[in-house]
Amino acid sequence: MSRAEFGSGWPFTVAEGTVSCEATPGGDPLTVFAAPGGSRYALNEVAGSEELGDIREVLDGRIRGFRAFALSLCELPAAP
C-alpha cells in the first residue's frame, strides 16, 4: 500500500507499507503496519501488541479505515 495509491487519505508519514493480521498467543487478532526497513507497528491494542512500535511514530492522520481493512485480512482459527 502506498501514498500514491491513497492520496490524501494516506495516514502515515512513510510513503508505503504493508498491512497484515496475525494471531497473538492468546488467539486475538493483531493488526500490523510494516514500514519500509522492517519496522512494525500495531494498528490495534491487544495483548502482544506492546512488542511492536507505537503507530504514532509514523502516523499523520486517522487509521480507522486501515485498521478495518487489516481486520478483514484476519483468518484466525475458531476458539475450541
Protein architecture, described:
A three-stranded antiparallel β-sheet has the order 1-2-3, with helices on one face. The model has no long low-confidence stretch (mean pLDDT 88). The chain is built from two helices and three strands. It has one domain (3-72). The longest helix has 9 residues, at 64-72. By secondary structure, it is an alpha+beta fold.
Any key phrases for this structure?
16% helix; three-stranded antiparallel β-sheet
The N- to C-terminal Cα distance equals 34 Å
Structural domains: how many:
1
Give the helix/strand class: alpha+beta
Question: What portion of residues is helical?
Answer: 10-25%
Shape: globular
Number of strands: 3
Radius of gyration using CA atoms only: 13 Å
* Uncertain spans: none
| Helix count from the secondary structure assignment | 2
Main sheet overview:
3 strands, antiparallel
Give the SSE string. HEEEH
Strand content: 15-25%
Averaging pLDDT over every residue, what do you get?
A: 88
Q: Reading side by side through the largest sheet, how are the strands ordered?
A: 1-2-3
